[in-house]
Amino acid sequence: MTTARTLxxxxxxxxxxxxxxxxxxxxxxxxxxxxxxxAVSRQIRELEAQLGLLLFERVRQRVVLSRAGEKFLxxxxxxxxxxxxxxxxxxxxxxxxxxxxxxxxxxxxxxLVPRLPGFLARHPGVTLSLASRxxxxxxxxxGFDAAIHYxxxxxxxxxxxxxCQEVIVPVASPDFLAGGxxxxxASLAAGPLLHLSTRPKAWASWFExxxxxxxxxxxGHRFDQFTMLIEATVAGMGLALLPRxxxxxxxxxxSLAVAMDRPLETENAYYFVVPLRMKADPLTNLMFEWMIExxxxxxxx
Length: 301
Description:
There is one protein chain. By secondary structure, the protein is of the alpha/beta class. Helix content is about 40%, strand content about 25%. The chain contains 11 helices and 11 strands. It has helices at about 10-25, 25-35, 35-50, 65-90, 105-120, 140, 175-180, 200-210, 225-235, 250, 280-295, and strands at about 55-60, 60-65, 95-105, 125-130, 145-150, 160-170, 195, 220-225, 240-245, 255-260, 265-275. The strands form 2 sheets. Strands 3, 4, 5, 6, 7, 8, 9, 10 and 11 form a 9-stranded mixed sheet that branches. The chain has a two-stranded antiparallel sheet with strand order 1-2. Strand 3 (about 95-105), helix 5 (about 105-120) and strand 4 form a beta-alpha-beta unit. Helix 1 (about 10-25) packs across helix 2 (about 25-35) and helix 1 (about 10-25) crosses helix 3 (about 35-50). The termini are far apart.
C-alpha cells in the first residue's frame, strides 16, 4: 500500500532543480553543488518522475523552465528555505533554550527590543529569535512560539492573551508647536494633520471624542509605516496621533511634544498570541509574564 510519505520530496533533488533553474544550466548547477553533470540530470529526472511533470525544456546548451517548472519553483525554494531555517534553529538551541517570537515591526524596534536586555539578564540561558510580521499567519507552519498582535483577539488555532490597550495622543515637534496657538481641540483641525494609511479614521475619532465637528479630519499627508510617520512629525511636517509607547524616546529627548493632553484609547488592543499546543510552555509564559510586568499598572485618568 502506497503511503503519503512517498510524496515527500528529497531535498537533494530539490536543490538540483532549484540550482539548475537559477543558472539555466545543468553544468553550472553541478559546479555549485559539487556534483557531476550526469548526477544533477539524474536527480532532476527522478524528481520529474515523482511529480509526473516535465520541469525543464532543453534549448540548445541551456535548460529553460517549463510552465510546470515555473509554477513549482517558488514552492521548491520555500521548502529549501524552511529546511535550512529548521536546521539553524536546531543548531542555535543545542546549548540554550530558544524562544522564537514574531512581533509588529515598530512595536518590536521601539518598545520590545530596548527592554529585552532586562529579560535576558533575568533568564541568561535563553536565546531569542525575533522576526517582523504585520498580519496574522500560521504560527505552526512558520515555526514561531508566539506573536505580538494588534487588533481583536482573533487568531486561528491560537490563544490570544491581552497585553494592553493602545493610547494615542496628538504630538508634534516643538518648532511646529511654537508656530501657532493650540489651546483647544478645534485649533488642531487647521493642521496640517499627518495620517497612518492603515488607520485613516484616527483623527476623525479623536476629534469626535473631543466634541469637535470638522471636515478636515481626513486631510493631510499619509504614511504606510509608523516609523515614517514619526520621522515626518519630528521633521515638523505637522501633527500626528501616535501611541505613547512608540514615541517614548522622542518625548524624553524633546524632539516631540504632546500637542494637547487628550489621550484616546483605540478600539483595538495588543495581544500575546500562543499556538494552542504551546499554552503551557514555561519559556513562552515567562515572556508573557515579563511583558505584563513591563507594561505596569493601567494609566489612571
